[in-house]
Amino acid sequence: MKQSPDKRAYAALYIRVSTDKQEELSPDAQKRLLLDFADNHNMLVLPEYIFIENGISGRKADKRPEFQRMIALAKSGDPPFSEILVWKFSRFARNQEESIVYKSMLKKQCGINVTSITEPLIDGPFGSLIERIIEWMDEYYSINLSGEVLRGMTEKAMRGGYQTAPSLGYASPGRGRPFEVVEKEAETVRFIFNEYVKGHRDPASIARSLNQKGLLTKRGNPFEKRGVCYILTNPFYIGKVVWNGIERDGVHERIIDPELFQAANDRLRSQYRPKRRRSVSACRHWLSGLVKCSVCGASLGYNKHAQPFFQCWKYAKGMHPGSSWITEKTLVNGVIEYFERLLDGEDFDFTLRIVSVSNEPDDTEVYTKELKKLELRESRIREAYEAGIDTLEEYKSSRSRLADERMRINDLLQEAEKEAQRSEAEDRRNILSKIRTVNDVLKSDAVDYETKGTFMRSIVEKIVWNRQENTLTFHLYLSEES
């Protein structure tokens, strides 16, 4: 045990107050009592070894930075204290398993005791038993308290009550009354929805517009893309209160019409975005980021000169031979000409992109797997017959039963394949309809470049330019929610 010059032992204080409104002493009150105890028991406490955590639960040790700092000092080669004083053992931990592990480690490896100044223990097995009971009661209290809090919050949610601070567009009048609309903020929310749904703008572009206007989030920060997306998906704006899977009609005034909210969320869910693709609002041209070099696969950058053109950025930096440039006029005309050919009946391929993937396989996959399992069962009954386990009559009966099962699954598989073919035809009609819309947008001089880029990205995954062969290869897709 480390001693001070006046023969007193060094001690550390661990003080914690949690967030669950328990009847606890304040940090200052705990500190005062602990210092009095140390002084009365000939212990010296240095200021740097007083560890205080305010508003932190004791259920998880790795969530408590001051606790971890104290343990790290205790595990050092020459620990600076030989005693840890706490007001109650529950301040040290509310998880019995962690409490036992840390106390045992401190005692056996570091020679450090953990002492509760309000829960004195006697030496010997009976004292250890009492300590385990105290730890168990502390953990039970924590678990029971969290359950009570959860039940209270659930009951509040069931009644349409609020569990969070007001969203942008609302303010709390207090005393449990419904949130009130803040009209200036509500206009910002309406702007976001209208620009996204009716203006076909992307969230990053909307965020930049809001920041240019000097508008701020509810927390007083500049807008970001993710903040705009959160607003677009927040059902509070259509009068709904959602918490922990519970949805109820709130008593507050809605800011957004349900139809507009649904349209925004339909667009968010249906949009497929390839990896590393920049939003159109961050591009210099509505085709930027879509056109790829056939030599290296890199994007062609837009160069605005007297005769604007696109060029592979890797070629421009000398990373491969063979230029991949194409003029803007040639590229734009090639895109429109390609869409015109498709609308005139030219065959084309496209990829179906599933946006929100379901864990359930489609019917054809299920039935194909069932047929493979059936083959295994048929093999096993044949082996059982050849090994003399089954009689000839049993073998014939099993074969007949499996044959009926195979016929049933084959019928289901054929119907699933027909449905898949019907679905593919419907998908082709849908993408042709989208191609027609995109083509009309591209040919209109009244449509801005950002809108054109947004529509292009709704059906075109990439366009590969091969300068040597003078060809543009289009990779089309149709996004679908599973």
Count of distinct strands: 15
SSE pattern, N- to C-terminal: EHEHEHHEHEEHHHEEHEEEHEHEHHHEE
Alpha carbon gap, first and last residue: 66 Å
How are the strands of the largest sheet arranged?
2-1-3-4
Q: Please, what is the average pLDDT?
A: 81
Low-confidence stretches: none
- State the helicity in percent bands: 40-55%
Helix count, DSSP H or I runs of 4 or more residues: 14
The chain-level structural class is: alpha/beta
Bin the strand percentage.
Answer: 15-25%
Shape: extended
Cα-atom Rg, whole angstroms? 35 Å
Biggest sheet layout: 4 strands, parallel
Please give the structural blueprint:
Blueprint: E1 9-17, H1 27-40, E2 43-54, H2 65-74, E3 83-86, H3 89-92, H4 96-110, E4 113-116, H5 125-158, E5 170-171, E6 180-181, H6 183-197, H7 203-212, H8 225-232, E7 240-243, E8 246-249, H9 258-270, E9 291-293, E10 300-303, E11 309-312, H10 313-316, E12 326-327, H11 328-343, E13 350-354, H12 363-386, H13 392-443, H14 449-457, E14 460-466, E15 471-480
Parallel strand pairs: 1-2, 1-3, 3-4, 9-14, 13-15
Antiparallel strand pairs: 5-6, 7-8, 10-11, 11-12, 14-15
Helix pairs in contact: 6-9, 7-8, 11-13, 12-13, 13-14
Task: Write structural notes for this entry.
With 482 residues, the protein is an alpha/beta fold. Helix content is 47%, strand content 16%. It has helices at residues 27-40, 65-74, 89-92, 96-110, 125-158, 183-197, 203-212, 225-232, 258-270, 313-316, 328-343, 363-386, 392-443, 449-457; strands at residues 9-17, 43-54, 83-86, 113-116, 170-171, 180-181, 240-243, 246-249, 291-293, 300-303, 309-312, 326-327, 350-354, 460-466, 471-480. Strands 2-1-3-4 form a four-stranded parallel beta sheet, with helices on both faces. A four-stranded mixed beta sheet has the order 9-14-15-13, with helices on one face. Strands 10-11-12 form a three-stranded antiparallel beta sheet. A hairpin with an 8-residue loop joins strand 5 (170-171) and strand 6.
